[in-house]
């Protein structure tokens, strides 16, 4: 099947990393760009976390990435993450779930995830809390906000965030770390920047109301195509996949969150 123009362009922009040297080079490039973006906004780059996103990447390439220094991986699909963590159980790595979660997967997340970055409903919060209580452990969470106002995206509408945060202390095993968003997929940088700026504003407003509800107030935002803009707007965590691992052969549509069809759990990283 011939490649689409977009996938061919992605391959040129994001060459596939296969060796330890490849991964080390890509990681260094991403970190250099994070540092440059942080410098432009007067921020300390060492306070910005780089979360490698390994969706669709085979276990052996994740193993190679770990040899290059990756100590955590973000995954969109719970089943994929569980399969990979079992295959790589001998490695000292953490697993972050960053895609939309259905309640029937709460038990799996509670069993092995180090964090969940896409909390956007009280029923999921309740299911996670119940499973975590039974397991005797807690879980770091980010509340996902739909800052692009796109119907296809998961996440809370911005005006529902204050009431949602106020309810979360009921679930004592959930440790709120901050907020997460997915910017609009657009070449218009101003539109992308507006999504990130809005998340920062929402975080700041929540702090003014009750700083305890927002935890340390982290901002997880920015992916391979826009993480530098996200850093300029205050990101404390950027979720980067293709710029580290290389362009995905899988069409973006399989991972774009389509609420009406249930297909996909997060956009390209």
Please summarize what this structure is.
This protein has helices at residues 5-13, 20-40, 59-67, 78-87, 106-112, 122-135, 161-167, 189-209, 227-232, 242-245; strands at residues 49-52, 72-75, 94-97, 115-119, 139-144, 174-180, 218-220, 237-240.
Describe this structure in words.
This protein is α/β, with parallel strands linked by helices and 269 residues long. The chain has a single domain (5-248), classed as Alanine racemase (TIM Barrel, Alpha-Beta Barrel). Helix content is 40%, strand content 14%. The chain contains ten helices and eight strands. The protein has helices spanning 5-13, 20-40, 59-67, 78-87, 106-112, 122-135, 161-167, 189-209, 227-232, 242-245; strands at 49-52, 72-75, 94-97, 115-119, 139-144, 174-180, 218-220, 237-240. The strands form two sheets. The chain has a six-stranded parallel β-sheet. A two-stranded parallel ribbon has the order 1-8. β4, α6 (122-135) and β5 (139-144) form a beta-alpha-beta unit. The radius of gyration is 18 Å and the shape is globular. The two termini are 24 Å apart. 46% of the residues are buried. Residues 60-248 form the Alanine racemase N-terminal domain. Pfam families: Ala_racemase_N (PF01168). Pyridoxal 5'-phosphate (PLP)-binding protein, which is involved in PLP homeostasis.
